[in-house]
Amino acid sequence: MIKRLLTLMAATALAMATPLSASAAPTTQQSYASLAARWWIWAGSQPVPTNPLVDKTGKDCANGQTGNTWFLAGVSGGGNVSRTCTVPAGSDLFFPLINIVDVEAKSDNVTPGAVRKILAGLDVKKGSSNLTVTLDGKEIGPNVIQYEESPFFAVTLPQHNIFSSPAGVYDPCADNGYYALIRGTTPGEHTLKFTGAYEGTLFKFSINATYHLTITG
User: Fold this and answer.
1) Phi then psi for 105, rounded to 5 degrees?
2) Are 162 and 6 within 8 A, CB to CB?
3) What global pTM score does this model have?
């Protein structure tokens, strides 16, 4: 059975002191869960050479973006990163603070229940700590950060994918994690910084990241 667990973190930001967001009210946990599945399909479908998750500068930030929701990537396995990213005004930003995924090959016939059991054993809720975000030097409140458990989804992995797995369709897949959603970004230059940590029975990591965002008009 092929299993790949990938731990990722990404930025969260809410315009409270500066006009980054036109509307940043939290939505339901279900909408976060659905977006989390889409986030993984976006992240998993791109090969390593141009995948935003392993991009060290932000040059690949726009890869694979479609529609009104703009996904921000985290850092695979944790660590330090500084990225510069240009985002269209009015986009909704969605990204994980901490997320863990289980990706299963269709040919292995792994049941959805087994996937849930694997993720439950990693206990993202219990293992997460030190989740901090600042926007333009001001700390952001936690009200837009929500824990979710995604619905099951399928992802088509390309050659040279982030899981180092054979190319093909993987199903069932699911994740658990903390995500944030910002609705309707407005033009401007902003710096957001974030930290976090996860410690479980199988592995642990921490992150310190900076995003230099240009929201275009």
Assistant:
1) -70, 140
2) yes
3) 0.85
